[in-house]
Fold each of these.
Amino acid sequence: MNKSAVILRTDQQTRARFTTAEFLRMGESGAFDDIKVELVDGELERMNPPLTAHAARQMQIGIRLSRLLPEARIMGEIGVDLGNDTVLGCDVAVLREPAEGNCLLIADAFLLVIEVAETSVARDTTMKRFAYAGGGIPNYWVVDGNRSIVHVYAEPVEGDYTRFHSVGFGEPLAVPGTDGTITID
């Protein structure tokens, strides 16, 4: 046995991997009461707390979407169950139908997922993009506050979106599932 194989095995033994069910039980027990975490491929990832610019833009988007859609189809800070070992939190979502009960939603429930990226653009345009596309979420926006643009992704195929374009802040942005548009600034 070579030395690198031993190191790899030791590293794998020290990592704790969790299922979605275990992650939910930890949350219910209060393990994450003072931190924000996501479950990515079985591993916990700590999230930065949202700052004021993020919160203001998230609220703006929710309000503008509510002018086009019934409020019951718009969610903020909702958990997205993307399989047995990945649970992500999105900033704003448009659902296909109103949600019932108190639960995480599976990818099929979403028409559009939106991430507000003031400090997380790289993560949101790579890892989260691939995760949402892999889950089959049909539309995904990353609101890039640093560059004042919205990255618009659509039509997921084999783990990535096949359509992509950017829309500048202040320009009309077509809202999937409606005939309307919103602007973000």
Note: The chain has a mean pLDDT of 89.
Amino acid sequence: MSTAVTPAAEPWSPAEFESRLRAVGQERYHDRHPFNVRMHTGALSPAELRCWIANRFHYQRHIPVKDALITAKLDTPLLRRMWLRRIEDHDGRREGEGGIERWLRLGEAAGLDRETLLSGRAVLPGVRLAVEGYVNFCRLHGPLEAVAASLTELSAPDLMRLRIEAFERHYPWIEADGLAYFRTRVEQGRRDSGEALALVLDWARTRRDQQRAVDALSFKCDVLWALLDAVQQAGRSRPADDGERDGLRDRVR
């Protein structure tokens, strides 16, 4: 929810503005969601983990879509080249490369058929709604808010390191090569968040614009939280063997 700002409000200092942006992630990032807490403590069943991988893939495959929308809003070749690299990071330069491909390999390492992931059959309605909301946010808002929403990446490197450790410790039945996506995103997330943060700090010169950026980041946290809400609810309501009828292959050893 947007916070009202009076026209006379003084802008925050750059240090305070950055602190407020970082506080959003510290307080609202999805690492705090009960589903992620259970994941990182080894409490998920194979079916629950596969459900998350399949549904999170729906989000992953839309990252380059939202980044293409953001790229179209940028008004210099320098900025467009910088943001185009994000699309390449996920789509790859050629077939068999990029973050989307690495996520498909994560699914295969967990026993999910690639065709099942690509078909989207396992995607929950709540996940579709959350992802569509984020893509439309980037489509309908200006570059400041669209870029600010990406600042959840400020918290991503720590989450990726935690996730790698958790998967290696608690889910050894997932083949080690499947964790390549998480390993790659540690450095990419640090680089991307640094670039985006610099842009937001530069662009948001008024208190109103600063608050818009904070609100955009809060919205993105809500999107990630809503995605996990849907996955968590599905785990509570679906029989454990539902995934097998959706094309999952049991690879627990």
Note: The two ends are 46 Å apart (CA to CA).
